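Ligand-bound model needed. iron/sulfur cluster.
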Amino acid sequence: MSNTRNYIYYDHTTSLCIHCHKPISAKILFEDDKVFLAKTCKEHGFQKVLIADDIPYYKQIRNYNKASEYPREPHTSTEYGCPYDCGICPDHEQHSCLTLVEVTDRCNLTCPTCYTSSSPHHGTHRSLEEIEMMLDVVVKSEGEPDVVQISGGEPTIHPQFFQILNIAKSKPIKHLMLNTNGVRIAKDLAFVQKLQTYTPKFEVYLQFDSMNPQVLESLRGEDLRETRLKALQHLNQFNIPTTLVVTLQKGLNDSEIGEIIAFALQQKCVRGVTFQPTTVSGRLEHFDPAKDRMTLTEVRRKILEQCPVFKPNDLIPVPCNPDALVMGYALKYKDKVEPLTHLIDPEMLLNNSKNTIVYEQDKELHKHVLKVFSTGNSIEAIKHSFNQLLCCLPGVSAPSLKYENLFRIIIMNFMDAYDFDVRAIKKSCVHIVSKEGKIIPFETMNLFYRDEFETKLENIRKQIAQ
Ligand code: SF4
Ligand code: SF4
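Prediction:
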C-alpha cells in the first residue's frame, strides 16, 4: 500500500541554507493551509520555513506578472549563477524601480534592528565624489531613474547633506526620496524649511514603527515617541510629502497596524504607509527568526483585519515584483477613506490581458494603470495617470482630486536566507548601488555584497567554480 504525504508538493526552486547561505534546492509545499519552503543543507540539515499563510493569494501572485523591463545594459556577467553574479547581471529580470544610494554608514541612533548595522561610530561618510559616481551609475543604467532614495545609515548627519541633495537634483532623476529616522527633522526646523525647497518630486521616507515605548525600545533602543510626533509636526507644517515606514515584527508591533494607518490618514503630509517585515540581516537583537519573522501574507491579513474598510481585492500584488510587493490605493477626504484598488479589474494589470472592459481597450489608459501599479512611482508621480484612471472607473465621481487626497499602502517583503527563492529574486526591483558602483538587489546586498561578507561570498564562489 502506498503512503500519502500530508502536504501538497506545489513547486521547486533554489533557496539558501539559513546558516551558511550556500545554494540548496527547495520544495514549495502546501500544508495546513500554509505555504512552506522545505530544504536540506548537507552541512546544516533539514530546514522548513513558513513563507505564506494564504495559499490562494500565494497562487495568485503568479498571475500578476508582466514582461520585465531591463536596465540599459548589464553591468556584470553570468558566471557563478544566481545570486552570486549581482551587479546587475544579464540573468536579472527587472530594472531598478527604486535605487538606494547609501551616503553614509553612520547613524545618530544604534537601533537593535538595523540591516546596515549602523551606529555613530560605524564606518564612514561617503565623499561627494563617491556619491556623485554612485548617482551617475544609476543614471547610466536607467537613463531617467524613477526613484532614487538617499539612504544610509542616517543621511541627514552627513556633513555635506544639502550638497548631496543638490547633486542628486541636478541629475535626471524623476523622484528623490530621503530615507530617515526623523531625529534631525524633529530637532531642526530650519533644516525642514530647507528640505521643503526640494519639493516637488521630493519625499521623506520616515521611520515610524510604533507609538508604544516598549516596542520602540526593542526596535530602536529608545523611546522615540516625542521625536516621531515632532518630526511629523514639522513635516506637516511645511507639507513635505511623507511616507511612514513601519518595520514589523510578529508579536511586537503587528497589533498596531490599524492604528498606524488611521493615524497616518489624519496627517496632512502623509501620502501613505509602507510595511516592511523584519528580515534576517545586519544587527538583529531581540529577534528570534523561528517565531518573530512575518510573511507578506500575514501582514496583508493583519491590515485587512485591523482596517476593515480595505477588502482583499484592495491589496494586490505589484506586477513588476509580485512576490515581494503588495499595493493598495485609497482616497482620503474629510474624515472618509475610500479604497480604490477593487475598482480596477485585475486583468488590466496583466500584460496578456484580453478582457473586454471598455477602458482596457484604451492603450493609453492601460499604460496609466500599469504606471499606477508599479514600484517606481511616488504618489506625486502617478497623479496624472491616476486622474486619467479615475475618470474611467465606475463608482468614482469626483476626479477633481488633489495629490493630497491620494493614499497608498505598500507591503514590501525583502527576502532573506529563510524565504529566499531564486525565481523571485530575479524580479527584485529595489536595488542598492554599492560604493564600488555596482547595482545590487536590496536582498542580495544584505546577504552577500556588503564588505563584511566578502570572504563568505568568495568561498561560495570558489566552491561553485570547482
Ligand atoms: S539576483 Fe539578479 S543580478 Fe543577482 S545574480 Fe541573480 S539574476 Fe543576477
Ligand atoms: S535602522 Fe536606521 S535609524 Fe536605526 S541605526 Fe540603522 S540606519 Fe540608524
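The pocket of iron/sulfur cluster (ligand 2) is lined by residues 107, 109-111, 114, 116, 118, 152-154, 181 (CB under 6 Å).
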